[in-house]
Amino acid sequence: MAGQAQDGGDFVTIPKGQYTVGKKGHVLNPFRRVRVDSFRIATRETTNAQFDAFIKATGYVTDAERKHDALVYKPVLQEFEWFNDSTASWRYPNGMIRGGIENKMAHPVTSISYSDILVYCRWAGVRLPSLDEWEIACRAGTTTDFSFGNDTALLSKYANTWHGKDHLMPDSTDGYLFTSPTGSFAPNAWGLYDMYGNVFEFCSGKLKAYPSPTVAHARGGSWWCSPNSCHFFNSYDIGRTNIHASFSNQGFRVVK
After folding, report:
1. What are phi and psi of 183, to 5 degrees?
2. What is the C-alpha separation between 8 and 175, in angstroms, rounded?
3. pLDDT tens-digit map of 131-181
4. Which CATH superfamily is domain 44-256 in?
5. Which stretches of 63-130 are DSSP H helices?
6. Phi and psi (nearest 5°) for 115?
């Protein structure tokens, strides 16, 4: 493993070198060593305020705003069920009935698609982390399931996740039903916040098992994920969705 990352304010520099990624026995992400060039990754997820600046500068219209097909959570849904709310978009990430983002500008932007994010990145002069870069940053030099070890019970210190036994009833055990302001929980050893929970973070790159150009990958789990359903709030799992799909639990962080 290369040397420890260095603090760069809003970004952390990950040194060029060889790192360990994956998990033994994992079909999609097996345990292995990879080599990467140095990169700078944002310490926090991209916020509503940052996305708002992009919209004001460009007039861009997101997939959800055009197609009215964003998927959101509402009570009394079975596991992995989502509600298609035609009013939902990045401005109203959980639908108009649940309010807008006026008081949530420090929350991560959601209800946007992978395709929307690529347009933002081109405008901002940044990019998404690769699958391996994201994992290297998330692990912060560790080989355990989490950057803090293997004890899931410690996750609540580091992540906004779902604590209820199912999704039939709302859960705000940690103070948040949906997203939380970025940096509300403890960072990993390299100063990166919300690598687990809050929102799934899109990455560039493809898994060999999903070669379709319409499939995008995201990592880290979200506020919706729980030990009883989507257990993707870890260092090794890799999620997938359509490049034009918009969910209220997916967002991104960027790399320079």
Report:
1. 80, 15
2. 30
3. 999 999 999 999 999 999 999 999 999 999 999 999 999 999 999 999 999
4. paralog of FGE (formylglycine-generating enzyme) (3.90.1580.10)
5. 63-67, 114-124
6. -65, -40
